[in-house]
Specification:
Layout: E1 3-11, H1 14-28, E2 34-39, E3 53-59, H2 62-70, H3 72-84, E4 85-93
Antiparallel strand pairs: 1-3, 1-4, 2-3
Length: 99
């Protein structure tokens, strides 16, 4: 079942986050996932938005997502993400395909 990783990002030390961001594509490319959204100016439709960025990644299943998130390469660049931003992230299951 398709899963999505959704992250809401609040920059705290933007220079560190930008260093993470500059390395992300090369680390993500072999993951098998798809980057669907990376928006620093989302349009708020309802409620209060207190973050700076939203990211949505798609993976074929939860083990694929976990392989990427737990990979040594991602863990290495994540040090800059952790140093540069507060992140709320979720792993959510997609809906089954209609018949």
């Amino acid at each position: 079942m398709t899963v999505y990783v959704i992250a809401q990002v609040k920059f705290t030390r933007e220079e560190y986050y930008r260093r993470y961001q500059a390395r992300f594509a090369d680390v993500f490319k072999p993951s098998g996932g798809r980057l669907l959204v990376a928006d620093e100016k989302p349009k708020v439709l309802d409620g209060e938005w207190t973050r700076d960025k939203v990211v949505v990644m798609e993976f074929s299943d939860e083990p694929e997502a976990k392989r990427f998130l737990d990979s040594p390469a991602y863990q290495e660049i994540s040090r800059d993400r952790i140093a540069g931003a507060e992140v709320l992230s979720l792993l959510v299951k997609g809906l089954p395909s209609p018949l």
